[in-house]
Amino acid sequence: MVVGTAGAVSRIPIPAGSPYGLDNLPYGVFSTPGGGPRVGVRVGDTVLDLAATLGDEAFARPTLNDFLAQGREAWAKTRRRVRALVDGEPPAYAVLPLAAARMHRPFDVGDYVDFYCSEHHASNVGRLFRPGQEPLTPNWRHLPIGYHGRAGTVVVSGTEIRRPCGQRRGADGPVFGPSTQLDVEAELGFVVGSGSPLGSRVRTQDFDEHVFGVVLLNDWSARDIQAWEYVPLGPHLGKSFATSISAWVVPMAALASARVPTPAQGPKLPYLAMERPWGLDVQVRVEWNGVEVSRPPYRETYWSPAQMLAHLTVAGASTRPGDLFASGTISGPGSGERGSFLELTWGGAEPVDVGGRPSTFVEDGDEIVLSAAAPGPAGSRIGFGECRGRILPARPLEC
Length: 399
Prior knowledge:
- This protein has 399 residues and is α+β, with helices and mostly antiparallel strands.
- The chain has two domains: 78 residues, Roll (SH3 type barrels), CATH 2.30.30.230; 287 residues, Fumarylacetoacetase-like, C-terminal domain (Fumarylacetoacetate hydrolase, domain 2), CATH 3.90.850.
- 15% of the residues lie in helices and 29% in strands.
- The protein has eight helices and 26 strands.
- Strand 20 and strand 21 form a beta hairpin.
């Protein structure tokens, strides 16, 4: 597609089998050398500029937040308008090659909560950290365990990540220095659209009224810093330095065909009950320096997105457009389905081959790429883009 002059029109080409066709239409924020950040939709290998086509000031903003705040009816109306544009011949000046767009963080993150919802992941970590004991803590099957993360360090795909420094356990007490066990966590992140007021609760059946869409998420983790600090209050510095998200937000409306039953759950309190228990059939792919090392299946995750949101708000916490809550590490039952390197290498005891290099944790210069796909209508596929990050060495003066 060549960007045309004012008044010209052009049909958007969508390659056969593209996971970014009419069934997907993910939203992002992009800029070009001639213009500031604004909202677009990915169509095939192009970006449709919504600020130039829909006449809504919300799309001229540098984040999706104003659009998210409009609510479910507006989301559905906009989706219909975008589909009609793509089906027809939009103005050529509003369509540009994806390669010509610089992508930005798609929304301002108000609050960020990371959960711990995969039974396979939690069981693996329990076996590693508490050998000989019951892998799951007594509360695990009764509530989605989570921690409040740091919204200010959520960054868009492609942002380089500086290796963190902190306290680690030493032979005679703590030592300070760069993390030597830098890890990844392959996750899905859920983006709140319509908020809920302080003192209210969001029921599981009201999930679709409040959550706009999904991003890929890598919750970078310094395992050695985390292991020293996490008792009794949980993660802090080991998780606070960076969380990467994909540049494209896949609408929940695009994932209707991907809804599948959750794994069987035990007894639960009424506020966590679901009229129709559902999860999502999203297949994640983890690449380490270009080598595929894992394929975590989100459909195996025990606690559903609706249960996460219900639990997050049951004590009366408010939510706002742009709030983000994540699934926690996605892991399946197989050894090639583990979403963290802590599990994949079994605490470093079983290195994996990364292009001829036996590897356990992430080294300086390494690049991690998450990608994912889900089933769409009539055999189509829904793509999520990439969540990419490369590790820079720790700053010498800080360590």
